[in-house]
Amino acid sequence: QVQLVESGGGLVQPGGSLRLSCAASGFTLDYYAIGWFRQAPGKEREGVSCISSNDGSTYYADSVKGRFTISRDNAKNTVYLQINSLKPEDTAVYYCAADISLLFSICVLSPARYYYWGQGTQLTVSS
Length: 127
Prior knowledge:
This protein is mostly beta strands and 127 residues long.
């Protein structure tokens, strides 16, 4: 059974940091492109970062460049999202997702490309 489980969200003060985890089961995570997405109340889901499965290249939305870092631990079948310099506008439910359309492919930040999704983890940035 394919499953993605996010963890690591919580309440953080502006300027703080935390790391989100996305643990995969039922498939080998590094075979597929993995993306991180977020959805704030009343807004559409947006892609924030992804990591390709062909060469490990990473991509970031302009709004998070320089503050977010995506990485992958193949031994743990887990993808991480390190978030620094948190801002109130980062408040959202964060989801990870797997693009299973192609093995060893380049990733994109379009949610439509992703098939398997986790349940999400809430990140709230507030003082």
